[in-house]
Design brief:
six-stranded mixed sheet, mainly beta, single chain, 1503 residues, extended
Length: 1503
């Protein structure tokens, strides 16, 4: 980083004034005229090279401009006069340059004098001084509505406070917001009045005040209004004020932008603050920004702003192209003020892990109508795989569509892009490729327009009378040309192993018709020509050829073609072979790293031998002890020296360098020697803060503060000079060095004033002397109070606290010093606050409650029995802010030695730094209780034998740093904790994961085992049982495994004799441990029982056995299955099921060979409780498994069924019945043992006469008998499986209840009618066969309520009662038809119709009469009984709507009893059919059309 103000005459290697634009411009004109004077016709070929400056083409004199002899003479005469004029101009310029140089020297001398006066003022800063105006206010006369600024410069010590007054009244900006603005910067105080009005005319004064006095400066402001102007004065009437050029301002740079670090894609601001005199809002300083000495212009990638207080450069979207040395140059009255700092831009995170960084500096060269050459710089590859090639993309300007130009990666950093469209503009970008993937794209190039480069060369401009320009094309001078000439100078302008670029000169003449070219190639010397651009029409004299064979030489020739025909072939080119001519550069030579600053290193190296096309260097670094290299720069650096920034102070690094050209990166150079990051060695800066501590009349004791910069080496000497205050001659006091910062200067004269100055020395020499102290009078101090404390310093500075330390006064006064008071004030303030109410007896104080980032000053006063003494000299301002990376002291215990220690890792260190440890802020020195060690950046204080005497506050300060320090209070609790840990480390034990334990293995073996956290291969151990050591042998097996840390002993036959105590003792190196297990009493019995069981199990498993005993499962259809798994079976193995010792034979015989058997229990209920048994047997043995389904097991099965059934439960549906309303829930299976709860309005329903609860195999229901309005509401059923409750609900209210209730009433009425209708109870046969002359009696019992009417019919004709046929109905119960002396005519179909108002029944009897002697005929039964209604019941009062209840309308049945009618209006009488009616006889026992009893209500069907 560089920051300087350079006068013109001091700039080296600059022979002329750089800012003298006129001189440079005139010099360029002279040079140009001279060149043109001697120019001649030239036909040089221009070849563009991206890595070299483009050459200016020579001017060719056209034929028509050839001069005659007379013209030549006239031309020479004019040229001679012009030459003489130019000589005069040069002499005038030389005179002006010398005058300017003299003026610059004068200004530089004046500035030097000002600087010396300023330094003299700095020396007198500490001298108290009343305010004094160095620059007083001056009066102003301004126009109305214009601003005015009053400013003045005030000095004084302490710094004065300035207040502004208008006519004796204080100016308050808050009373008129926006009217006044008061500023105070670096001693310059100003009052700005915006938009003055006439009333602002007044006398203004600035009053400066400090504790030593007051000073006043006054000035008058007169505000004028233009003559005749009203209040709305036009701006055009304001007179033009004299302009001030920005370069006439005095500019002083203040806070400068540092070395900065950014990342691709992020943004960064470079800001430099300044003081400008005068500070005019409308005239900002003239500032220019440069990157690597190239002037930057504002654009979308670089925003610039400058004002009277700061200059800012904003880079909104960083790319590695932005890396470089940025310079701010501001033109000032004295020359230029400059500041430079480097900006590093690192790679953004790759899109694919291991992919390379993006290329940079993409530019286009050799632009033609359909061809450009794109070049770029390769990225640095530090830890990534080498780059294998690059992809070039193009995009038309104004679009976002990128097209890849090359199908395969190109290996060099150049690529010819052809196939462009004439007149179109393009952007280009590049992506790097390695084996891990493709990098992020580079920043796109500037816009490039494809134009015909030869077109401009064919234009000539002729001036007529020096005023008019006439443009003439070569086409107009060539005459009428049809077929063009042949191209010339065919050659290769780019030769690489990837491609060859052919170039040639277009033909002359070429004609006016559009021209294109055809290229042919052949193997050198063969003459077998072949066209190579068959699919491409070339318009520019450039063409890249990619498909050439390696190792072959080719020749090329070119034809010119237009619409009239083709030219002759050009002369063949020289033989061309595709090859990389140079390759990557050789590695740089010796690399040397030297110290620079505390965070940077200066690296330089020897340039490589092969530097062809070299574009720069990449520098890599590595911390010593690390394997990871890091990139020091991310853009090739052109020079062979570089400053590596951003290093860790005190860390040691090595560096290497790689050279870069278009072919890639060279091999790495050899590594540099390791170097620690330290400032360069120099003499120390001057000490400061000289203060007087005591005087006895013949000597003065003085103290001072250490230099702020030690110069990279320890300050080991101080030298004191003295002089009388009245003389200028200094005298050395000590010839031998003083190492302490306190010295008594003797041999002085009493009553004389003396001045002192101090010089510090180190290995580099003696530094500059300090500023002279204030005059000190040599007289004996006799005051009773103590003298001043001294050497104020700070430690442990943090954001809200710090510790101030000082040294006791040398002069104690009349009695001993008993304590100290500490005062604090804000920086720049004289208002001190005492921090401690009671005097502290020690020489330090922790200050808390500070404001982060704020600066403070302190002073200390000693106290004795006689009072408070003189205050110390003010401390340096200290900012309450921790250093970046600050770490605190860590207390711990060494894992190997067990030592208790305090450790600090410094965030900053240098070669001369030392760690100074203190206890209670007293140096520990060579105390035998502790030892101090340091390694690198870490220091450790180790306690020898810690106890309570070591409790206290420990602090450490790192010297020669910016205040690295920390403290730690060691408390008793923390010490005890660390003592326990220390004892455990010093007396190690083998840590155990698991103590001694046992487990029962198969065959009844018992394993005793213990597991350690870690075991070494040299571990030893032994098992002791009942005080006797057991070794591995018969009955016992002892082993261990180092990997798992397990030590074990296996007892083969565990019996009663094995009861007792088991112990294992382990020794592993220095560590040891033991673990015991007591195996007696009930614990031993349980172990023995388990061992015996395992032995029996082992025996059982030798034959067929159950690998899994009986268990139950429930299928999706709620079938319970008792299942088991068997093993070690064969075909002959038998399997039997038993329940309560009774064998069960399942429908499907068990298949033991499948390995599993199951017994299904469908429709599981309480009847299935019992003890089930499965028996497996063959000739090898028998095994039995039992399963008791009762108690909890039964409940578990029911819950499992409920779980499946509940999940399958449908929504509640409503079913109306004659008894009431029924709610039903369908599910896969239901049994009353399931935990099913019905609820009404959240209240559980118990089964009762009113609410009946029941169910079927697949349904649960709840019947509401004789419902009423009380039964309205929400109903729910809850099916619980013990874990989950499945709930289904139904809202029986509103219209749903109304419809259901009406349906219930209808069904109830229908059931009542069915119950009370007339019917034949019994007594009638179906067929009656009788001999003639016999009497036939058909008698039956009938019933009905009310008593039914009875009618008899024969062949559908009603039978009347007479002597032959007698009809009787006795008691309303017995009906009979008696036929006396039957005859064959009496044969036929007889029927009885019994009915009342609720309905009736029609019963048929077939009567067959045969004659005496005839064979009795076979009885013929009538037709099957069919439901032919005989009467129509009363319809319901409120029939359900057709959409909800699809009920059929009952048909009317014919009845013989035509005259009988129901006495109730609800009944519908039937009609008696005519005997000849075709209606068939109703079958016997035909019921009336009463609705069926269980007709469903209009509810949704079951889901």
């Amino acid at each position: 980083m560089a920051s300087k103000v350079i006068p013109w005459y001091k700039k080296k290697h600059v022979s002329q004034v750089k800012t003298d634009y006129a001189y440079h411009h005139s010099k360029h004109v002279v040079k140009q005229q001279t060149e043109r004077k001697f120019s001649s016709k030239s036909a040089s070929q221009v070849q563009a090279q991206p890595t070299e400056a483009m050459a200016e083409p020579a001017y060719t004199i056209p034929v028509f401009r050839q001069r005659t002899a007379e013209d030549t003479e006239e031309y020479q005469r004019v040229s001679s006069n012009v030459g003489k004029g130019l000589v005069v101009i040069q002499e005038e310029l030389h005179r002006m340059r010398m005058a300017t140089k003299a003026q610059v020297d004068s200004l530089a001398i004046q500035k030097e004098v000002k600087d010396m006066m300023k330094r003299r003022g700095d020396l007198l800063e500490e001298v108290p001084k009343m305010p004094d105006f160095l620059v007083a206010l001056r009066p102003h006369t301004v126009w109305e509505k214009t601003p005015v600024k009053l400013f003045c410069t005030v000095e004084g010590n302490p710094r004065p406070i300035v207040k502004w007054y208008k006519g004796g009244v204080p100016v308050d900006p808050l009373n008129a917001p926006g009217k006044y603005k008061i500023e105070s910067k670096y001693g310059v105080h100003s009052l700005i009045i915006s938009r003055c009005v006439v009333s602002d005319t007044a006398e203004y004064s600035a009053v400066a005040t400090n504790q030593h006095g007051t000073a006043t400066s006054k000035a008058t402001i007169i505000v004028k209004r233009p003559g005749g102007a009203s209040e709305s004065c036009q701006l055009g009437l304001v007179p033009h004020l004299t302009e001030i050029h920005p370069s006439k301002l005095e500019v002083t740079l203040l806070e400068r932008f540092p070395v900065s670090f950014g990342v691709e894609g992020n943004s960064i601001k470079l800001v430099c603050t300044m003081v400008v005199v005068p500070d005019l809002p409308n005239v900002p300083p003239l500032a220019q920004w440069y990157r690597d000495d190239k002037l930057l212009k504002p654009n979308k990638l670089a925003a610039m702003s400058v004002s009277g207080s700061a200059a800012c450069l904003t880079l909104p979207h960083l790319a590695k192209d932005d890396e470089g040395l940025f310079t701010l140059r501001i033109f000032t009255k004295d020359g230029t003020a400059e500041h430079s700092a480097y900006l590093f831009v690192s790679d953004a995170a790759p899109s694919v892990a291991g992919a390379p960084g993006a290329p940079m500096s993409v530019k286009a060269y050799d632009i033609n109508s359909d061809y450009v050459l794109v070049a770029w710089k390769p990225p640095n590859t530090v830890n990534e795989a080498p780059i294998t090639g690059y992809f070039v993309d193009r995009c038309e300007a104004g679009t976002d569509t990128w097209v890849q130009c090359n199908d395969s990666p190109v290996k060099v950093c150049k690529y010819p892009v052809h196939g462009l469209s004439l007149g179109h503009s393009y952007h280009f970008r590049v992506r790097a490729v390695n084996k891990a993937g493709i990098s992020r794209p580079s920043r796109k190039s500037d816009k490039v327009t494809a134009i015909d480069a030869a077109e401009s060369e064919r234009l000539q401009v002729i001036k007529i009378e020096g005023k008019y320009d006439i443009m003439i094309k070569d086409d107009e001078l060539e005459g009428y040309v049809t077929i063009p000439g042949e191209p010339t100078n065919v050659h290769a302008s780019e030769i690489f192993k990837s491609y060859v670029v052919l170039s040639w000169k277009p033909p002359s003449p070429r004609g006016r018709a559009p021209l294109w070219f055809i290229i042919e190639k052949c193997l050198a010397g063969t003459g077998a020509w072949q066209q190579i651009n068959t699919a491409v029409k070339l318009h520019s004299p450039r063409y890249p050829v990619f498909d050439l064979q390696d190792g072959q030489k080719y020749q090329f020739r070119v034809y010119s073609v237009n619409l009239y025909g083709s030219s002759e072939a050009s002369a063949p080119s020289e033989p061309i072979q595709k090859v990389d001519e140079y390759g990557v550069p050789s590695a740089p030579g010796q690399i040397v790293a030297t110290r620079n600053t505390k965070s940077s290193v200066f690296v330089q190296w020897e340039t490589p031998k092969n530097q062809k096309n070299l574009v720069g260097y990449y520098i890599d670094g590595r911390a010593v002890g690390s394997k990871e290299w890091f990139a020091c720069n991310h853009k090739p650096f052109r020079h062979n020296r570089f400053v590596v920034h951003g290093l860790i102070p005190g860390e040691t690094y090595v560096f290497r360098v790689q050279a870069v050209n278009v072919f890639g990166l060279s091999e790495e150079s050899q590594e540099s020697s390791p170097i620690a990051v330290e400032p360069a060695l120099a003499t120390p800066s001057a000490p400061y803060g000289i203060t007087m501590l005591s005087s006895d009349g013949s000597s003065i004791t003085v103290a001072w503060k250490s230099p702020k910069h030690c110069g990279g080496s320890k300050v080991n000497a101080y030298y004191i000079d003295k002089r009388d205050a009245d003389t200028l001659v200094w005298k050395e006091f000590n010839l031998s060095a003083v190492t302490e910062r306190v010295c008594t200067v003797d041999n002085l004269k009493d009553g004389t004033f003396y001045e002192f100055r101090i010089q510090a020395g180190n290995l580099a020499g003696v530094g500059l002397p300090s500023a002279p102290s204030v005059p000190m009078k040599c007289e004996a101090w006799t005051m009773a109070e103590p003298g001043p404390a001294y050497d104020l310093s700070f430690s442990e500075v943090r954001g809200e606290s710090l510790v101030i330390l000082w040294k006791a006064p040398v002069y104690t006064g009349a009695s001993a010093v008993t304590g100290y008071f500490v005062d604090m004030a804000d920086k720049g303030s004289s208002e001190f606050v005492t921090l401690n109410k009671e005097a502290v007896s020690h020489c330090y104080l922790q200050v808390t409650g500070l404001e982060k980032g704020k600066s403070y000053v302190f002073r200390v006063c000693g106290v004795n029995a006689n009072g408070v003494g003189k205050p110390s000299q003010l401390s340096e301002p200290v900012c309450a802010k921790a250093l970046p990376g600050t770490k605190e002291i860590v207390a711990g215990v060494d894992e190997e030695t067990g030592d208790i220690f305090l450790s600090l890792e410094a965030c900053e260190i240098c070669e001369t730094s030392k760690f100074l440890w203190s206890k209670n802020y007293k140096p520990v020195g060579d105390c035998p209780r502790v030892t101090v060690t340091a390694k690198g950046r870490t220091s450790r204080l180790t306690f020898t034998n810690p106890d309570k005497d070591d409790l206290g506050r420990y602090s450490v300060v790192v010297t020669d740093t910016d205040g690295v320090s920390s403290s730690h209070t060691l408390t008793e609790d923390a010490l005890n904790t660390m003592l326990e840990l220390s004892y455990a480390i010093k007396h190690p034990i083998v840590p155990l994961k698991h103590s001694l334990n046992y487990e029962i293995l198969e065959k009844g073996h018992v394993r005793f085992w213990v597991q350690a956290v870690k075991l070494s291969p040299s571990v030893s151990y032994r098992f002791i049982v009942n005080d006797k050591e057991v070794t591995s042998g018969e009955g016992h097996k002892i082993s261990h495994d180092v990997a798992s840390g397990v030590i074990q002993m296996t007892v083969d036959h565990f019996t009663r004799s094995n009861e007792g105590t088991y112990t294992v003792q382990i020794h592993d190196g220095k560590a040891k441990t033991q673990s015991s297990l007591v195996l007696v009493g009930d614990v031993f019995k349980a172990a023995l029982k388990e061992a015996e069981f395992q032995r029996k199990e082992h025996i059982r498993k030798q034959g067929p056995h159950f690998s899994e005993y009986l268990y139950f499962t429930v299928t999706e259809d709620c079938t319970v299955r008792l299942a088991c798994k068997v093993a070690n079976v064969k075909k002959e193995s038998a399997f039997h099921w038993y329940k309560e010792d009774e064998e069960i034979v399942p429908e499907t015989p068990p298949n033991v060979m499948s390995g599993a058997c199951a017994l299904p229990l469908p429709l599981f209920s309480r009847k299935d409780q019992g003890v089930y048994k499965a028996v497996l047997s063959d000739d090898r043995g028998k095994d039995t498994s039992t399963f008791d389904i009762s108690g909890k097991v039964f409940d578990d099965i029911i819950n499992a069924i409920a779980h499946i059934a509940g999940a399958s439960a449908s929504d509640l549906v409503m079913q109306c019945t004659p008894e009431g309303i029924r709610l039903q829930c369908y599910m896969s299976y239901y049994t009353e043992e399931m935990k099913t709860v019905w609820k009404h309005k959240g209240t559980k329903i118990a089964s009762s006469e009113k609410m009946r609860i029941g169910g079927a195999a697949e349904m649960a229901w709840m019947q509401i008998c004789d419902p009423s309005d009380k039964e309205k509401g929400q109903y729910s059923i809850e099916i619980s499986d013990g874990v989950t409750t499945h709930t289904r609900t139904f809202d029986l209210s509103g219209q749903a209840y109304t419809d259901a209730y009406e349906e219930y009433l209808r069904l109830k009425a229908a059931a009542f009618a069915e119950k009370n209708r007339g019917r034949v109870v019994g007594g009638l046969p179906d067929v009656a066969t009788i001999m003639e002359e016999k009497s036939l009696s058909l008698t039956c019992t009938v019933w009905g309520e009310p008593t039914p009417e009875v009618s008899w019919f024969k062949n559908e004709q009603e039978v009347a009662s007479n002597e032959h046929t007698k009809v009787t109905f006795d008691g309303g119960k017995f009906a009979s038809l008696v036929i006396n002396k039957v005859t064959p005519e009496d044969s036929g179909k007889y029927s009885i119709n019994v009915r009342n108002k609720y309905g009736g029944e029609f019963v048929e009897i077939t009567v067959s009469v045969y004659k005496h002697g005839e064979q009795i005929p076979e009885p013929k039964l009538g037709q099957a009984k069919t439901a032919t209604p005989a009467a129509t019941p009363a319809p319901s009062k409120s029939p359900a709507p057709p959409a909800k209840t699809p009920t059929s309308t009952p048909s009317k049945a014919p009845t013989p009893a035509q005259s009988q009618k129901s006495s109730t209006p609800a009944s519908t009488p039937g009609s008696t059919p005519v005997p000849k009616s075709p209606t068939p006889t109703p079958p016997r026992s035909v019921k009336s059309p009463t609705p069926p009893r269980f007709m469903k209500s209009p509810t949704p069907p079951r889901k």
